[in-house]
Specification:
17% strand, single chain, 0% helix, 92 residues, two-stranded antiparallel ribbon, mainly beta, two-stranded antiparallel sheet, globular
């Protein structure tokens, strides 16, 4: 987790991913979709997380930026209320 990350959303996002394709997951919470890097992290010390999956299917990706299994959701988002969106990520 990046110490400058913002909570993009307190809900995960389902997304279809392709096996063996390289993805760049947004770690800063500032990208336009909260999922994939669009370069918005350049104003922070955060860097995207590069990942692949072994199976093509739908996955739930974290948008609270607090999951212990980033980029995948582990339910940590439930600790954030709606008013936490856009604010700094807290340690779970």
């Amino acid at each position: 987790m990046c110490n400058e990350a913002l909570v993009f959303s307190n809900k995960p996002q389902g997304v279809q991913l392709e096996a063996d394709k390289e993805y760049y997951f947004c770690m800063c919470g500032r990208s336009s979709d909260g999922l994939f890097c669009d370069g918005s992290h350049k104003v922070t010390s955060c860097t995207p997380k590069v990942f692949t999956v072994t199976k093509s299917k739908a996955y739930h990706l974290c948008r609270c930026k607090s999951s212990k299994t980033l980029p995948f959701c582990d339910g940590t988002h439930s600790m954030y209320r709606d008013d936490a969106v856009g604010k700094q990520v807290q340690e779970p």
